[in-house]
Design brief:
The protein has one domain: Rossmann fold. Helix 7 links the parallel strand 8 and strand 9. By secondary structure, the chain is of the alpha/beta class. It has nine helices and nine strands. 41% of the residues are buried. It has a seven-stranded mixed sheet with strand order 2-1-3-4-7-8-9, with helices on both faces. 36% of the residues lie in helices and 20% in strands.
Amino acid sequence: MTTIAVLGNGRVGGNLAASLERAGHRVTSAGRAPGAAADAARAAGIVINATPGAGSLERLTALRAELRGKILVDVSNATVAGPDGLPADLIHPGSSLAERLQEALPETRVVKTLNTMLFPVMTSPSSLAEAPDVFLSGEDPQAKQTVRELLADLGWREEWITDLGGIRTARATEAAVLFVPHVIRSSGFAPFAISIAR
């Protein structure tokens, strides 16, 4: 059984770790203790980046050796916070956090997913009134297939999963985070996902 390391133990990371563990996976979580992220990444086959996106590139680049040959599932969005703490702008306009991570970690297989929804939906997609979508961006087909299987374990049906293509497509899904503050101000903090109506 492959060990999954979840980097970041806030609401997103804690939610993902608990749900993957319930699904039968061996999961380790890395908090802020010095060396914790390196130890967790070193022992894992799959690493989930659930750290705050503004600092993710620096944190993960420091783990280049530990992430070599691994699948890195990036669920974070790199944003500048507005006065109310909600996303106000992108840190990497014209690019994306996922692209920067893949450039910085060429021996790591980066897959972007789960970043177009509020965190409760990541592990409970069927709780929404309408069928949600989740997107995959990445260069490695095998890595994306592995992530598809993890998504299925989190409750995502096959027809809800859309492979957008290479890692460059992550700039589109990361930009979708700019919807979030406006939806929250309009409707309150109720779970929602960005979906494609067909």
